[in-house]
Amino acid sequence: SFTFQYFPAEARLEDRANWEPQDLAGGKKPLFYGNRDPQRISVQELYLDNTMTDRSLKTDLDDLRTLMDEVDGKGTPPALLAIWGDHKERCVLEELCVEEVMFNSEGECTRAKISIQLLELQPEGEGTTVRTPTYTEDVDPG
User: Fold this and answer.
1) Is 57 helix (H, G, I), strand (E, B) or coil?
2) Alpha-carbon distance 130 to 34, whole Å?
3) Rounded CA gap, 80 and 67, in Å?
4) Which regions of the chain does DSSP assign to beta strands (E)?
5) Which residue of 83, 100, 126, 138 has the fewest CB atoms within a 10 Å radius of its CB?
6) Mean pLDDT score of the chain, rounded to an integer?
7) 3-class secondary-structure state, position 64
8) What share of the chain is helix, strand, coil (3-state, %, to 5)?
């Protein structure tokens, strides 16, 4: 598990539905529901802070970066469970931005300001299907 020390001021959740216009004759094109993109969760101003102990954050930051690595050559990212308040989201770490803001006398980072972007994972056990719209047209065989 990875725990940030201070709760951020805000979290941004982005949802998107994919509506696809259909090419049919006459009038406005009707929309067909395609699917939904995975939810994106952006959290700014997370902090790791060891200024009181003067201990380097290098190991913590390296551990955080490994959450973006492929799992055992399978081509999949590690599944994470992000928890804050009453939210629990199964996700992957899509984007990580680390700003090193304080250093000890050896020049090692002791405080870091972090921004992350998480991408929602499909619920466990949910299969994937491909849906395509079907059309029927009256065709004159003559």
Assistant:
1) coil
2) 9
3) 8
4) 11-14, 17-21, 31-36, 40-49, 80-84, 87-103, 109-120
5) 138
6) 83
7) helix
8) 5, 40, 50
Phi-psi region of 122 (alpha: psi -120 to 50; beta: other; left: phi over 0): beta
Place of tokens 């719209």: 133
Residues of the chain with pLDDT > 90: what percent? Answer: 42
Give me the count of residues in the chain: 142
The predicted pLDDT at position 1 comes to 62
| pTM for this model (two decimals) | 0.72
Burial of 94 per CB tally in 10 Å (0-12, 13-18, 19+): middle
pLDDT in tens, 49-92: 999 999 999 999 999 999 999 888 888 888 898 888 888 889 99
Q: Are 38 and 121 in contact (CB under 8 A)?
A: yes
Triad 104, 116, 106: Cα angle to 5°: 10
